[in-house]
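Illustration: Histidine biosynthesis bifunctional protein HisIE.
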Amino acid sequence: MSDYSLLKPDFSKGLLPVILQHYTSKDVRMMGYMNEEAFELTKKEGVVWFFSRSKDRLWKKGESSGNVQYVKDMHLDCDQDALLIMIDPVGPTCHTGADSCFNLAPSFTLKDIESTISDRATSSEEKSYTNYLLKEGIDKIAKKFGEEAFEIVIGAKNKDKTEIKNEAADVLYHLGVLLYNSGVSVAEVEAVLASRHESKNNFKGERQTIQDW
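Result:
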């Protein structure tokens, strides 16, 4: 995460175009405009403020609906006259009730799996398969992960794309449970991958970087 408190947009060209993007799914949520006061309020309060061109006033996104957009990070473009804000939204972003003002295809990431597993783990749903695995512990979780991984091998040997896709989904889910049980987040795994991607000289021996894969 960058230190966005140091950002200095160029307002000499007028209002600053701003894109809101979900910080985990990377879905583009909306575009708006800021003047300097809206930008400073956004930095100060950690929620998105805009300048409304139609109403000619400042407005906090979600001030009526309660669907505020919490700021996770901000980045200026190379000319310092456009802003990308990574957000953690409360509810939908679009005033229509849709998540995004853009017509986007549904997205699903490993962090969505992580979130679902976390929700199941803290719920009182006794019939939850996730809760069952977590109660059984690492031996059961590791055994199931190994079984699903082997099923992918069988699917690959059979050249059955449908089987491979289904078993891969099972593997990723059980990996998510294993990570949760071990106290390792998806973000931590992503950080390792990012580190390997940034420098191929960070690791020695068999631990290869992404460029070497």
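Reading the tokens back as a structure: Residues 157 and 164 are 10 Å apart (CA to CA).
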